[in-house]
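Let's practice the habit of predicting before peeking. Look at the sequence and jot down your guess about where helices and strands might fall. Then scroll down.
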Amino acid sequence: MKTIYRLAKTELSTMFYSPVAWVVLVIFSIQSSWKFFDSIERFEKAQKLGMTLENLSQTVFSGFSGLYTEMQNYLYLYVPLLTMGLISREINSGSIKLLLSSPIKIKDIVLGKFLAIASYCLLFMGILGILALYAYFSIDNLDIKFVLSGLIGLYLLICTYAAIGLFMSCLTSYQVVAAISTLVVLAGLNFIGTLWQGVDYVKDITYFLSIAGRANEMIEGLIISKDVFYFILVSSLFIGLSIYKLQTGRDAQTTSKRVLKYTALVSLVLALGYITSRAPLTFYCDMTHTKSRTLTQNSLEVVKKIEGPITITTYVNLLDVNYFLGLPVSQNQDISSFEKYSRFLPQIKMDYVYYYDSSNNVELYNQNPGLNDKQLAQKMVETQDLKLKKLYTPAEISKIINLKPEQNRVVRIVEYNGKKTFLRIFDDMFKIPMEKEISASLKRLVVSPVQIVFATGNMERSIDKKGDKNYKTGFNEISFRYSLINQGFDVSSIDINAQNIPEETSVLIIADPKTELSQGAINRINNYIDQGKNVMILAEPETNSALAKITQKLGVSFTKQSIVQQSAENAPDYLVTQMAKAIDTSIIKLNKNDNPIPLLGASGIKIDSITNFKVTTLLQTNNLPAWEAPLGINTIPEELKKESSLTGVPLVTALTRNIKGKTQKIILSGDADLMGNAELSRGGSGTFQFVTDIFRWFSNYEFPIDTTRPKSVDNLITVNANQIFFSKIIFIGIFPLLIILSGAFILIRRNRR
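Done guessing? Here is the structure:
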């Protein structure tokens, strides 16, 4: 060990007797400081303008353009300049012969050289550490552990680069060639993860070897054992290769023995890498203050209930627009998207099934007129160069699973303990399911899902149509992430005039029947209510009389005409509502909603003096005067204004009572458009959040799963513009100048000697 230390000390001195080491240090210092202070200055200006800042630790240091992320992209340029002369300089000068003929062990020589360059790389981390220290005093409640996690990741990355550069320096006497070779190898390791991803077994090896993004998780605050082992193993591999290469200059070995040694070393590293990257042997350490790299508490409670094997099967239709998400080349990346779950559920098994069938991919059919589905599938296989073990035909896949209701889209089936549920791909920017959707699917397998049943038969709103007034978006749109069918609910409908309400129904919804309910329907609904089950009734001013026999039993009624208010911008029946004040949270919990919740053409709700229910108003008109008037008026007549006005008219009301040891929950809304496709899609509206909260209440807060995290505390820049300006002068001007002067002093002093 003493020999390694002495060699490292000598090599480190030699490095600093070269201007390259000083120039690299100066460039790194200026580049990192410039990036850091640019971010701090930008956020200080935003804060001064009144903008809300959040999670500054992660924003400044990681993310898309954070300090660590930016510097990671440049590290590969610095290392070849530092490592190109480690061994090649000795080979070129002939001193390598003296080293090899000396009693010093070759492994000591290599390890000494590596220790020297690793020690030098600590200076890079020291510069970043000084910037982090400045951030500690300029960002309130800086997440220190998060910042340290990024430093660890960058240091392991640059040491791995150094080990690669050391080996390349062993191969040539020309330093420039060594530097270029190092760049080529680093580029290859970044690219190799995309090679042969369609070939089983080989794809796991090339994916493991890829160095691209290996430090990203640590930069984002999550230390994963397989990434740490990767850096250690790859560094060890190239250090070992360097030792073997130099031994060929000292020992006479046959070619077969050399090949065997190299093969054994590479095989050992690959085997260890494969083993340490398996889910059951992977360990995690979340370094973030809010544990943002770990599942939320509600999701953790779900995974704790899963004890046996769980299978996620992805059915990939080659003709679907999202087919690429499940291709063999994407499988490793797809599997990594479930890593938050495999961390706690290492028994997750992921399978992929490929088939072709008709799809809604209009563009594909338009671009290939005249081709049938089979011909299109063959064309996809040829153009994508797919090596599939089996491609199922429509007839074959239909015997395995019926995907017609899923529109033959790319979809997953999650199986556990004999139960199955869908996990879908969505038509938004992210496509893949996030924690909220994955946890909902898993939870459906361990608890009974909430059964929402819509009454039909009297021209009610439809959950299968996309018109403005229908309900497909919020309840039954498989391609919409936040539709309740993707958030843990089962949604179905029955003809209330002819069918009994299913026993397992959790919520019965009666949405704006336009014709009178039959006596059979009324009896079924009243009997259902008498059993203490949950109901949601939505009416419209013109048609609410159809619900009179139901609402009368509840002790409430709707106004016969719509509620109108004077407005300079909107029609009289466009009501900008407000939430009732001091809603009892022991009855219902609603998220604070700063966005308006408009109602278009709404009846008011009247409460009888005698009712068996506790009545809680949720939405009401604001404090402006309101009147009852027919629908469709453009202005409020002067005669109407002379009549007594109303304020705080209830528009959406919750009724509750205890029955059979349970709380019965009923929602009444004077506007059926509240849950319509148009209103749930209205920009800047709080309607969607309000409706979602209501169904969370109906499900006893089981679904949709709440995956919100604690608010960040590092939200304030504590330095002003003048302090930042002077700090920039110090870090970008004076500090690099001191490095230059120190280097000049040492180099001049050495030359004089």
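How did you do? The CA atoms of residues 72 and 508 lie 55 Å apart.
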